[in-house]
Amino acid sequence: MLYLVRLTLFTLITVLLCILTILFGVFETHGKRIYHINRFWTWLILRLAGVSLKVEGLENIDPKRQYIFIVNHQSNVDVPALVQALRPFQLRWLAKRELLRVPFFGWAIWAARHVTIDRANPQAALKSLARAKERLAAGISLVVFPEGTRSRTGALQRFKKGGFLLAAQTHTPIVPITINGSGALLPAGSWRLGSGTIQVVVERPLAVEGFRPGNLRLLSNQVRDVIASHLINPAPPERQNSQSIGPAIVRQQAMERHSV
Q: Where is 71: in which H helix or E strand?
């Protein structure tokens, strides 16, 4: 009964926050004010589930600067963890355009001014790149999951080049971030988010000057090596005090599944 009460309450709050994001987002160019709604929503997810964060390396980055954060991807709870770990920053994700078709959630993505990309349409992709540059110019940092999807084993998958191309073209420093522990709390295919601790390791920014589209693989491999150096083998998915909050993470699940 208690679980049903919590689930109902959280679902209602999630829908309400989506609606508020949509209503107020219409009047914003970059979604800076309504980003506070996202901060509250992600805090609520972690708080209800009993998830704590251990953040290391925040001293390596300047909250007054813009970065492109390149992050490994283990779980659907990675997005809430990043929003809370990087609270001084305004963050936007690169995501597939198909997300905009999802009722409430897709509309909220648009209203929050995340950057959606249509890979099948090169001309539209160029417009998306221009929007990403506008976000950076407005003081907003971007987050990219270069693996494109969650790793089921915790091992790093091959990195896609989209985020690195954007960094090279905008001369924006890349910050490698390693997430550990999220895969054990919410394994791929599971709806039960367990209580526990997620470690977020923030590395020093990497300059991108000198990199061009022809040698982005070198940059990608460099970032991949830095992330891998902090990666810890995930623990088996055995959890205590876990609770199913399926609808509670639907918004973030969809975004992560369609990240680029």
A: strand 68-71
- Residue pair 120/98 in contact by the 8 Å Cβ criterion: no
Is the pLDDT score of 127 beyond 90? no
Look up the CATH number of the domain holding residue 182.
3.40.1130.10
If you search the block for the tokens 């005090």, which residue do you land on? 241
94: part of which helix (H) or strand (E)?
strand 91-96
The packing angle between helices 2-25 and 250-257, to 10°, is 60
Asked whether 107 and 156 are in contact (CB, 8 A), the reply is no
d(CA 259, CA 148): 6
Domain count within the chain: 1
For 67, residues 6+ apart whose C-beta sits below 8 A from its C-beta are 61, 89, 141, 142, 172, 173, 174, 175, 205
What range defines the domain where residue 196 resides? 2-235+244-257
Per-residue pLDDT of 55-92, as tens digits, reads: 999 999 999 999 999 999 988 889 899 999 999 999 99
The contacts of residue 140 (CB under 8 Å, 6+ apart) are 30, 32, 66, 90, 91, 92
pLDDT over threshold 90, residue 7: no
Mean local confidence (pLDDT), 173-180: 97
pTM: 0.83
| Three-state SS sequence of 173-229 | CEEEEEEECHHHHCCCCCCEECCEEEEEEECCCECCCCCCHHHHHHHHHHHHHHHHH
